[in-house]
Design goal:
The protein is built from 13 helices and 22 strands. The protein is α/β, with parallel strands linked by helices and about 425 residues long. A hairpin with a 2-residue loop joins β2 and β3 (about 25-30).
């Protein structure tokens, strides 16, 4: 059995990994890397037409964003995933097609992606690319899955995992069995703060800004962090721990909220019971609002909280708010997630005083705060997850910047054979 990384090797973004042996072959994820320019998987010429089977761990574009191009380039694959992933991929690809630049696929290609999706439930066995396969809960976002592949060897691909539960989701499945593990290392060199610590800081930062009469902007991924942040704010406002101000949802977050509600069966039991037994639906809270005007001037009229895409300031409505609110030190932007190298978000977090938006230089005088409410596992959680896998001999570390993967490898090498693949390197499982 061989492994090749066409993306996601020593980088965060464009995850695309091929597992093959004899007549069996499956592509694990098919993503893009969003930054100042979009980067695609490094597929060899003609490769895309040969792709027959693709398992998608979850809907984020760094794992699914190249599917439209795959179809446009002549591939006719079967795509495997959880139903919620199929629904979320549909809206994220359609949105990327609408706002992205130099897009090489059409709306019809997006429809074809959805038509080719074969959905399965967690733990259900199915055939994919000649392999036996199963999907296990990854705890990252709604419908996120680890992909288990059984051929001559048993391989588990983690996708993006979170070992701790959140307000909406249970943590990932643990204590599985595999010979080899393809493990993400986004935070392989970092211990993430406890959720309680991060939430306390978030509430404190928001209260301070609202008290001063400012606006709070929270850039967020449309899927995952957006819903977690909204649920959290709704809870604290309901309990009186946060002052009652409007919480605006903008960008794809609103559409994603509907899909979360439609797929509530994939959320934790408490959320389902809250809806079914008490008619208290957290997805349709009285605290949630959407902008009424296209220019969003109504949102700027009074102090409020704005949760909007995109999480790394790479596009979307968040840039409109930032342009309008950047001049005022009473306002605040709070980053709650990972900011990749080369993104506007990383520049702002690193202390930039000016950034470019729509070919215009914008001076940043608003306050900047950063905290982590992550859908990923930190270093010790990744290590514990790997150590819990029965029969494990080999680990391939992916989806992390080089420094992060090397630090994670140092600990894991004491017990396992550890490889940090380079792009296009052929590795024997």
């Amino acid at each position: 059995m061989e492994f090749i990384a066409y993306g996601g090797a020593r980088e965060v973004g464009r995850s695309a990994f091929l597992l093959s042996e004899k007549q069996r072959k499956i592509l694990l994820d098919c993503g893009i890397k969003l930054g100042e320019k979009v980067e695609y998987p490094k597929f060899p010429e003609g490769f895309e037409k040969e792709v027959r089977d693709v398992a998608i761990s979850h809907a984020h574009l760094d794992h699914s964003g190249h599917l439209g191009s795959l179809i446009a380039n002549g591939s006719k694959p079967i795509i495997y995933g959880i139903k919620a992933t199929k629904d979320l991929v549909g809206i994220l690809l359609a949105d990327y097609h609408r706002i992205g630049k130099n897009i090489d696929f059409t709306d019809r290609d997006v429809s074809e992606v959805i038509r080719r999706f074969h959905t399965y439930e967690f733990k259900e066995e199915f055939k994919a690319g000649g392999y036996k396969a199963r999907l296990y809960n990854a705890g990252h976002i709604l419908g996120s899955a680890m992909v288990y592949i059984e051929g001559e060897k048993k391989v588990l691909y983690s996708g993006d995992i979170s070992t701790r539960g959140t307000r909406l989701l249970d943590g990932c499945e643990k204590n599985l069995r595999a010979d080899a593990l393809i493990l993400e290392g986004t935070y392989g060199n970092e211990e993430l703060p406890g959720t309680k610590e991060s939430v306390t800081k978030l509430i404190s930062e928001i209260k301070e800004t609202i008290k001063e009469g400012g606006h709070v902007i929270i850039p967020s991924f449309a899927v995952g962090r957006g819903q977690e942040i909204l649920m959290l704010l709704e809870n604290y406002m309901k309990s009186g721990a946060l002052p009652e101000v409007k919480i605006y949802m903008d960008g794809m977050i609103k559409k994603a909220m509907k899909i979360y509600r439609q797929n509530v069966v994939y959320t934790k039991d408490e959320v389902q019971k809250r809806i079914l037994l008490s008619a208290d639906d957290p997805f349709t809270s009285k605290h949630f609002f959407v902008p009424r005007r296209r220019d969003r001037k109504d949102v700027l009229e009074e102090p409020c909280i704005i949760v909007s895409t995109s999480g790394m300031l790479s596009g979307g409505p968040i840039l409109t708010y930032l342009k309008e609110l950047a001049w005022n030190p009473k306002n605040k932007i709070i980053f709650v997630g990972y900011q990749a190298e080369g993104t506007r978000g990383r520049k702002v977090v690193d202390g930039a005083k000016k950034i470019e938006i729509d070919d215009e230089e914008v001076e940043l005088r608003l306050k900047v705060a950063e905290l982590r409410i992550s859908g990923h596992a930190g270093k010790s959680e990744l290590i514990q997850f790997a150590q819990g896998i029965k029969g494990l001999k080999k680990i391939l570390l992916v989806h992390g910047e080089e420094k992060s993967l090397e630090e994670l490898a140092e600990t894991l090498e004491k017990k396992y054979e550890v490889v940090i693949p380079k792009a296009l390197e052929e590795i024997r499982i």
